[in-house]
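Hey team,

Sharing the Molybdate ABC transporter substrate-binding protein run so nobody has to redo it. Sequence (233 residues) first:
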Amino acid sequence: MGLFCSIVLSTPLWAAELTVATAAGYRKPLTEVFNAFTEATGIQIDSAFGNIKQIEAQARQNPDIQILIGDWFFIEPMKLAQEHVVIGQGKLVLVSPKDTPLSSLNDLLNDSVKKIAIAGRKNAIYGKAAIECFTEQGLLKDIEPKLLEVTTLPQVSTYVVTNEVDAGFVNLSEAQAHQDKLGPPIEMPQSCYRAIDLSAAPITGRSNTNEANAFLQFLTTEHARAILMRHGL
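Structure output:
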């Protein structure tokens, strides 16, 4: 706690700002973390949300972005950050419309399930995780023709909530954000997909600032962890 306080107090609160690019599937929990950080320190966070390709493009084009937050599996190959701090573990869940809830992964094989939304497997870790899970469970051949790949997890949720698809795969945080509009989420066994590490990655050459250091320190506090855990991370 002493280290965190010393970092915060050395920062000019009246003018301080930090720019962070973040994976869209974590918008709700991270917005809450950002607000808590600002309340604790006075440092404003300018956040940009998008899929992993979008935040990579933003980070390369905008030199003001100091920290990336997303899944380390996709951030590491960018070679923009030489280190990362794991701040949560993502959980893959199956969601369905509130009026036609599903009860298991095998329900996806039913003829009544015609469309299943996932975030694109090439650019979204939860789309990739869903494919891994289908493969591990021996279901990919039957499910593949039903798949609709979209850009981000919030789009998956929208398709499910509006009954444009019969099911979708998101993270637990996204499912909780729409729990009043969805059937009960079904958590997939973590043995069927590679572990998903939600990470904060300071960009090399840009992040050695009081603001960035204060934020990275804040992410290790009980306050930040409590927020993330409440959102299923």
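The two ends are 23 Å apart (CA to CA).

Ping me if you want the raw files.
A.
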